[in-house]
Amino acid sequence: MQSILPHLVCAILYGALAFYFWRRHWSGVETAVADAPSRRVVEHAALLAPFALHSGLLWTSMFGAAGLYLGVGNALSLILWLTVLIYGLGSLFYRLDGLHALVLPLAAVAVVLPAAFPAARALPNTQSWEFTAHLLISMLAYSLFTIASLHVMLMAIIERRLHSGTLPTALRSMPPLLTMETLLFRIIAAGFVLLTLTILSGVLFSEELFGKPARFSHKTVFGVISWLIFGALLAGRMFYGWRGRTAVRWTLAGFFALVLAYIGSKFVLEVILGR
C-alpha cells in the first residue's frame, strides 16, 4: 500500500478551499470585493495546487510496471479528478462559483481512496487503443453526469433560497436559473452521447476490451437503465419542456443508476468480496 500522507495533504488542501468557498457563497458572510476580477483569478489559481498534487498521486497509483491499475479507489479518484478539471475549465466561461463548495469536498474524499482501497492487480488488455478509448469515454461520461447532478442540486438549493428570501449576496451574481437550466441540459446531452458510446463499445468490442464476450449482468442492466432515464429526460425536455423539480428527480435517478452500474459493482467485487 502506498503512503497515505500525501493523499491526506491533498485532501486537506481541497477541504480548506471547500470551506473557504462555503463561507464565501453559502454562509451568508458578506464581502465588498466578492466579485473583484483579481480575487476570482487568485481563487482559480489556488485550485491548481491540490489539483496538481491530485494529478501526480493519481498517475502514481494507476500506472505500474504490470500495467494499468483501476480499482474502485482509483476509478472514483479519476472520476472526481476529471470532474474538477471539467468544472474548472467550465467556470472560466460561466459564473458557477457556488459549485466549488459541492465539488471540492467530494474531491477531498476521492483523493484518499486509492491509498485506502489500492487495486490488487493490473487490468488486462490495456495496451489496445479500443480499451483506452472506452476507458476515457466512460470516465468522461461519469464526470459529466457527476457535474450535472451537483449542478441540479445547486439549482434546487438556489430556487428554494430564492423563495425563502435567504439567498446569500455572493450567490446573487450567478446566472439566472433559466441560463443554468440550459447549461444543465447541455451537460446531460454531452454525457448521454458519451454514455451511448460507452455502452455500444462495451457490447460490440467486449472481446477486444475484456477478453470475453459481452454477457448479461447487473452492471449492464443498471447501465442501460441509466441510459434510458437520461434519454427520457432529454426527450421530455425537447417535447414537453420538462424542467425544475422534474429535471432534478430524473437527473439524480439516472446518476444513481449509473453509480450502481459501475462503481457499485466494483465496490462489491473488490472491497466486499475481495476479488
Describe this structure in words.
This protein is an all-alpha fold and 275 residues long. It has two domains: 1-114; 124-275, no CATH class. It contains eleven helices and two strands. The chain has a two-stranded antiparallel ribbon with strand order 1-2.
Question: Can you summarize this structure?
Answer:
The chain has 275 residues and is mostly helical.
How many E strands? Answer: 2
Which percent range describes the beta-strand content? under 5%
The string of secondary-structure elements, in order, is HHHEEHHHHHHHH
- How far the N terminus sits from the C terminus, by CA atoms, comes to 17 Å
Name a few traits of the molecule.
275 residues, mainly alpha, 2 domains, 11 helices, 2 strands, 73% helix, globular
Which helices and strands occur, and which strands form pairs?
Blueprint: H1 5-25, H2 37-46, H3 48-62, E1 63-64, E2 67-68, H4 72-90, H5 100-110, H6 113-116, H7 129-164, H8 177-204, H9 206-210, H10 218-240, H11 245-272
Antiparallel strand pairs: 1-2
